[in-house]
Amino acid sequence: MELTDREIHLSKDLFGADFEWGVSTAAFQVEGSHDADGKGLSVWDVFTTKKGKILNGDHAQTACDFYNLYERDIDLIKELNIPNFRFSISWTRILPEGTGKINQAGIDYYNRVINYCLKQGVEPWLTVYHWDLPHVLEVKGGWTNREAITWFSEFITICAQNFGDRVKHWMVMNEPVVFTGAGYFFGIHAPGRSGMKNFVPAIHHVTMSIAEGGRILRRLLSSTTQIGTTFSCSQIEPYTDKPRDIAAAVRADALINRLYIEPLLGMGYPIKDLPALKDLKKYFYPGDEDKLRFDFDFIGIQNYTREIIKYSFFTPYIKASMVKAEKRGVDLTAMRWEVYPPSIYHMIKKYDAYPNVKKIIVTENGSAFPDEVTDGEVNDPKRLKYLKDYIAQVLKAKNEGCKVNGYFVWTLTDNFEWAEGYHPRFGLIHVDHATQQRTVKASGRWYAEFLK
Ligand code: FCB
Q1: C-alpha torsion angle, residues 44, 50, 54, 60 (rounded to 10)
Q2: Whole-angstrom Cα distance, residue 264 to residue 302?
């Protein structure tokens, strides 16, 4: 294959030798074995059994069978020359009842995964919480209950005590605004709660838990261990330059991009720009203001697209709505998200501008397309172009002096994409979910070549 000028230009050397390249997954989306070896049920195990919640009635009881096939998948990571592997821990494998009795089989499982990574020369990066709250805790109110801070502290302590000797990169939680927004306001993700009465307390208890989780890791882990947490983000642009669209975009930006990071940086919740969240203060206990803050070693940002926002009289609270990408005549992924590479550049710039952000790692970026295996091969030119174009934008930000020092593709294998089921294929590796057959896509081969 002949290389174009642009491809020659995009070499990993341009990012520097210490730039961290990787691939990301999450426990619930790949592991399967939902009730094996003493595992308890999570909110997602329960949510996926409810009628009409998941596209095509899909569930994740087997998913990519990573629980059993982890050696094969880690071998593939090594074959693709990917040095860092981000994955998450299932809370209910370790604490089937959410708190209390530890299930040793769960600890043993993650020890096997971590040890196999290390054996293969792949560096494990751990996300402690990627959305799979124990169902028994949801029955007690889940994240709306302030006790969740204590429950989560117990879980993260056990993770640190058991895996902290070998894992040198930690992320406390994944994308808080997505799991609280979709799970506690819109009710379209687990646990399926809705409304401000659930969303607002969940926001505060989650933010408190992220900060407390950071402090626990800092206390229990060696001083060289890198402690981070991850945030979803999308470039926000107003639909027109009319003042009411511009103001709507400011509110959407506060909700989508600023809500969680700002209190964690010690700036407080962005209530001034998002007055609908003024009730957050009702959930404050004395001292919370300070406890919301934690000094992370790195911030993980996860970007896929941009959003165009307009004023909307009929949308309660935020009075803003998204102008759907499919109505804008732009390139779309299978998620109906716009392909818009400059978004990642603008998001790196935005987070880099916060005074207390020390380092940024792009902990997720990728795209879903309807890939098919033909003669044993998967040709996915759209994903390949997406990755190159987004990576080029990361380089642009880095060259302008931003503290961005890592990039992880979402994701390794086609997996269970939450409410969308198996329909969107995000993997560098195609999975036939009936046979668990893996086929490295052309984009995966490109990434391997790039990382060589
Ligand atoms: C992010 C999630 C991840 C995956 C990608 C497509 O919001 O963190 O689990 O679903 O989107």
Answers
A1: 50
A2: 17
Contact 297, 309 (CB under 8 A): no
Q: Check if 337 has its Cβ closer than 6 Å to any atom of ligand 1.
A: no
Q: How far is the CA of 322 from the centre of ligand 1 (A)?
A: 19
Averaged pLDDT for residues 52-72: 98
For 90-120, the pLDDT digits (tens) are 999 999 999 999 999 999 999 999 999 999 9
Beta bridge partners of 271: none
Question: Ligand 1: distance of its center to the CA of 59 in Å?
Answer: 16
Whether the model pTM is above 0.90: yes
* Mean pLDDT across 433-443: 98
Active-site annotation holds for 154: no
What is the 3-class SS of the chain, one letter each residue? CCCCHHHHHCCHHHHCCCCEEEEECCHHHHCCCCCHHHCCCEHHHHHCCCCCCCHHHCCCCCCCCHHHHHHHHHHHHHHCCCCEEEEECCHHHHCCCCCCCCCHHHHHHHHHHHHHHHHCCCEEEEEEECCCCEHHHHHCCHHHCCCHHHHHHHHHHHHHHHHCCCCCEEEEECCHHHHHHHHHHECCCCCCCECHHHHHHHHHHHHHHHHHHHHHHHHHCCCCCEEEEEEEEEEEEECCCCHHHHHHHHHHHHHHHHCCHHHHCCCCCCHHHCHHHHHHHHHCCCCHHHHCCCCCCEEEEEEEEEEEEEECCCCCCCCEEECCHHHCCCCECCCCCECCCHHHHHHHHHHHCCCCCCCEEEEECCCCCCCCCECCEECCHHHHHHHHHHHHHHHHHHHCCCCEEEEEEECCECCCCHHHCCCCCCCCEEEECCCCEEEEEHHHHHHHHHHC
212 is catalytic: no
As a whole number, the mean pLDDT across the chain is: 97
The reported pLDDT for the residue numbered 5 is 44
- Choosing from 28, 302, 305, 413 the residue with most ligand 1 atoms within 8 A of its CB, the one to mutate for a pocket test is 302
Among 3-12, 59-68, 415-424, the range scoring the smallest mean pLDDT is 3-12
